[in-house]
Amino acid sequence: MHSNIKCLSALLVVLPFASCGKQPANEPELNAKSPGNLASAVNEGSRQIALLAAAEEFETLTESSFSADISTRDIMIAKARRAVAKVATYVSPELADELQSHLADIKSAQTNNAPADLAIASNEAFGALVSAVDGKQKIPVNVSLLDYAGFRFDADAQATPARFADMGKAVIFAQQQWAGIKSRKEIGKLSGRFSAALDNMELASRSGNVALARTTAKVELDMVDELETAFGR
């Protein structure tokens, strides 16, 4: 429901398409370098798409951790594992190790039928993958990381007992991401409402009220959809 990964994939500014236009006649050097530039851009585009596709598998698993039955979660976990294998050639050794650690945490949570731990571990993998996306996108990566923060906050609220201290950390992270984009003209009409949504999450994280926390998380996640739409226009 709150996925913007497909949108990001579609809206990646992939340089090969720009390279297909006519080159000015007075730029022989650029023409000479075009094949190498094109190959490099194709490789970078493939990397970004692979990262986003893998992130989408973890986002789906995160969203479904509390609602899906064990067998359905097994299927989603297998898809996430395959997605990690596909990005192995595109990520740093450090990120590869981090993803394997998250997969181990996911396996442990699934074995123990601990949906909150499963959601958190899956969401951490999602956050790591979208954080690795670089280059220019029409929808900023900050938006995906606001999704990450909302998922984390909501998973904390559904844990037993609820993890209010970590909710506070999730809000701080969200505020940091929001600071990077809140002045963008594309989302000017949403800026005040989204800032208020984060303020309400912060208050909920200190309230000890699970129902309130879940309500504020839903508002934030729904508003992330609005940010995606606004940036995607």
Layout of helices and strands:
Elements: H1 5-11, H2 15-19, H3 28-64, H4 70-86, H5 93-111, H6 115-131, H7 141-158, H8 164-179, H9 191-205, H10 210-232
Report on this structure.
With 233 residues, the protein is an all-alpha fold. The chain has helices spanning 5-11, 15-19, 28-64, 70-86, 93-111, 115-131, 141-158, 164-179, 191-205, 210-232.
The description of the largest β-sheet is:
none
Output the helix-strand order: HHHHHHHHHH
Average pLDDT, all residues:
86
Number of strands: 0
Please tell me how large the radius of gyration is: 19 Å
Give the class from helix and strand content and strand pairing: mainly alpha
**What is the helical fraction, as a range of percent?**
over 70%
In DSSP terms (H or I, runs of 4 or more residues), the helix count works out at: 10
Percentage of β-strand residues: under 5%
CA(first)-CA(last) distance: 19 Å
Overall morphology: globular
Question: Which regions contain 5 or more consecutive residues with pLDDT less than 50?
Answer: 6-33
